[in-house]
Amino acid sequence: MGTIRVRYFARIREQLGKGQELIDSEGIRCAADVWRRVSGTATSTKILVAVNQEYAAMDHPVVTGDEVAFFPPVTGG
Questions:
Q1: Of 8, 10, 65, 76, which has the highest C-beta tally within 10 A?
Q2: How does 15-43 read in b/e, with b if 16+ C-beta sit within 10 Å?
Q3: Gap between the Cα atoms of 77 and 71, Å rounded
Q4: Domain ranges in the chain?
Q5: pTM here?
């Protein structure tokens, strides 16, 4: 069994009540699959994703051992 490290930042961390977790990589093919697994919802255009610390699209491939991070868009002020 392989795992994927999932990290959450800002509002998403607050909503999910955790900063990170390990999930089973079985059945995961892309970042959108990770989001559906951890949130139970479809992907949103209001969520940014990074795979292995590089910005990525939700359809970016994800494999065992990867780190996937979700965070809200950065706003200036």
A1: 8
A2: eeeeeeeeeebeebebbbbbbeebbeeeb
A3: 18
A4: 3-71
A5: 0.90
CATH code, residues 3-71: 3.10.20.30
CA distance 68 to 49: 7
* 5 close to 67: Cβ distance less than 8 angstroms: yes
pLDDT digits (tens, 9 = 90+) for 21-72: 999 999 999 999 999 999 888 777 689 999 999 999 999 999 999 999 999 8
pLDDT in tens, 1-14: 799 999 999 999 99
Q: Which residues of 48-70 are buried (b: 16+ CB within 10 A; e: fewer)?
A: bbbbeeeebebebebeeebebbb
